[in-house]
From TrEMBL:
Transmembrane helix is among the record's keywords: yes
Name of the molecule in the record: Prepilin-type N-terminal cleavage/methylation domain-containing protein
Entry's Gene Ontology BP terms: type IV pilus assembly
Pfam families membership: N_methyl (PF07963), PilW (PF16074)
Transmembrane segments: 12-37
InterPro entries on file: N_methyl_site, PilW
Keywords noted in UniProt: Membrane, Transmembrane, Transmembrane helix
Superkingdom, taxonomy of origin: Bacteria
Lineage: Bacteria, Pseudomonadati, Pseudomonadota, Gammaproteobacteria, Oceanospirillales
Amino acid sequence: MKSSFISAKQKGFSLVELMVAALLGLVLLGGVIQLFLGSNENYRMQDELASIQEDGRFALMFLNEQIEMAGWTDPSSSQVVSAIDFGNSADGLNDTIAMSYVRAIDGVNNLDCNGNVVLNGIVTNQFSVNADNELVCRGMGAGGVAQPLISGVSSFQVLYGVETELVCPDGVVDRYMTRDEVNAAGLTGNVMAVRVSLLLNSGEEILAENLTDQFQVADQNLNFNDRRVRRLFQETVFMPNSAYNILVNSDAAVKCMSGF
């Protein structure tokens, strides 16, 4: 009796019980792995979005500063330049814009966007997108190599706010046009504002599946179908120096304002 009682108490699990326990363990482990993968994907998504936001804000801040400065002439200089250098600007899959201004020749302020000293004081900085989808800036005066500002650029588009009134300009933007349209209309000297559109992407494919998305980037309608995340940044910047030159240096404007 004693022997059979001990044998019954020491009886182990059956094969079915072990298989059920293993299955439950696998289910729990799968849930933990799925939770980990979801958290990791969410972290990557948030990290990429934060990087895109930071790059977008930086690029617009940099471009804003250059656009507002365009057309400026330092009081110590008698040189005058056009705000937009249309000869070094272009329309395309990604646009190119070059802006000029005059700084005092002091070795401190007469620096281009690459940090090079411009000896004649006429600073011209050209912004474009290179083959690596980076927004770059090249100081035209120094003939330097373009330096990258941000990466992951899907599209960079520029429209020019133009005063179309040639007889009696009133200093108000009448129409936004592409570089080629402004050039064809003979209004290169009447640009008073610049509208910049910058579409940035995550670089890496971080979405679980392809996403079909559409963006209106300035004058272009773009479609995408991939696993990248994109955000559009746009800003319209008024050019006070250009507007001042149009109104003050225009004989027609003076006559109109005088009533003659």
